[in-house]
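[Automated response] Your request has been received and processed.

Submitted sequence:
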Amino acid sequence: MMLTLLAAAALDPPLEEYAALATGHFSSAAQHRSDPRYDEVETRVVRIWPERTDGLWLYQEQAIVNQPGKTRAQALASPYFQFVARIVPLKSGSFRRDNHRVREGARFAGGKTGTLTQADLMEAGCHNRIDRIAAAWFTGTTESCANRYKGAASMLSLSVLTNGTYVNWDRGFDLVGARVWGPEEGGYIFDRVVEADVNKSPAN
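Generated structure:
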């Protein structure tokens, strides 16, 4: 049977710029080496459903690869979170980013998103505003995000996305505003990596 490839829907230039910066393979390895309080985390972001005209859809997964007793490959096979983000432009010039958790995520670990459908997504639980500050420079702020991890009531995420690097600072807060999880002194710094360089890593 011959597969029909659907043409990607055109995006407005600012959203196209955001997509180019946000997609790819990123690692916090350099930060981990300089400050071991931060784990070595790998992130993969790919565009999915490119033919859709209701926004930019991205699949993202993250895994801690310096887990004791696990190889990098084993860690990547069980990411600690997977979600699909829908990003749409607003009249103000900003973007709205809604994050959907993925049901039975193990089926899609490693970016195997070929069979991922809308039915595999939970209702969006986190909503963020993204602002374009300058060319190749975006910031993101959580507008609302319920969270129950470690007794939290909500999560606050702050992010900066530039050419080749993004910073993400996720923290959970309880009902009285006390931080109950997440780094205290700043976010994770992720650098874009080249697949060939990662595949040479002795951690494989």
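Summary generated for your ticket: The chain has one domain: 13-199. The mean pLDDT is 91.
If you did not submit this request, please reply to this message.
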